Amino acid sequence: MFLKRLAYYLNPATLFGKSSGNSSLRFMHGINRISILLFLFCLGVMIVRAYLR
């Protein structure tokens, strides 16, 4: 359930879809998506580095 919501949230098709008229809320969701993607990228780098040791 959680992974399904996360996949929907990070889906590029939903990134540019219709949203509410509140621009502050839209920017907040954009920053949240960037931070989640950066976290997942760093987690992947840490796993690869640990595997290569």
SSE diagram, text form:
Elements: H1 2-10, H2 12-15, H3 23-52
Overview of this protein structure:
With 53 residues, this protein is an all-alpha fold. It has one domain (2-9, 23-52). 81% of the residues lie in helices and 0% in strands. It has 3 helices and no strands. The chain has helices at residues 2-10, 12-15, 23-52. The chain is elongated. The termini are far apart. The relative contact order is 0.10. The mean pLDDT is 85.
Helix-strand makeup class:
mainly alpha
Low-confidence stretches: none
- Report the mean per-residue pLDDT as an integer: 85
- The number of distinct structural domains comes to 1
- Biggest β-sheet: count, sense, barrel? none
Radius of gyration: 14 Å
Q: What assembly state would you assign to the polypeptide chains in this entry?
A: single chain
Q: H/E element string?
A: HHH
List its salient traits:
mainly alpha; 3 helices; elongated; 53 residues; single chain
Quick recap of the structure?
This protein has 53 residues and is mostly helical. The chain has helices spanning 2-10, 12-15, 23-52.
